[in-house]
Amino acid sequence: MEITATMIKELREQTGAGVLDCKKALETNGGDFQKAIAYLKEKGLAAAAKRADREVPEGVIGVYVHPGSRVAGLVEVNCETDFVARTDEFQRLAKDLAMHVVAMAPKYLSPEDIPAAVLEEKRRAALSELEGTNKPAEVVEKIVQGKLEKFYNEVCLLRQAFIKDETMTIQDLVTQVAARVGENTRIRRFIRYEVGEEL
User: pTM of the full predicted structure?
Assistant: First the structure.
């Protein structure tokens, strides 16, 4: 199948990948658009993983104030250079993350940030729910672990489903942007303010 400039342009607009990468993806996958997208995602995510340990001294603070000015979110997103921090895509990511924080009210960035006392309390609550069920210990442990995973997905920003596309998590979103901008990208911190709420 002949790979046309129009096909390359369309793939480039959808993925943000370079012209040569788009051409190679289409050639490798016989012109199949969906396979080419999957190929580029895989390639981009592999490149993003290689950059994950680079320093991220630059970045921006995304701000979102919900209409009515009663709820607001701030998110610091870091990258490697101020050039990338000023791009429209990076600025849009920061704003989308701030909007997500307002909508979903995460408590922690990742499971590693949850205090041990909170986790122990959740574990005890899950175990007490299963008391008297006569289930084997390994089954009980799997159920408890499942409940903890569900808890992580509810309260950890990186584990939450993105409000604009629930097929991806916030971690997936950040990784995809990192792959497209070609730099390590990381959420450093966030805060959500609501009128009358105790901090």
Answer: 0.73
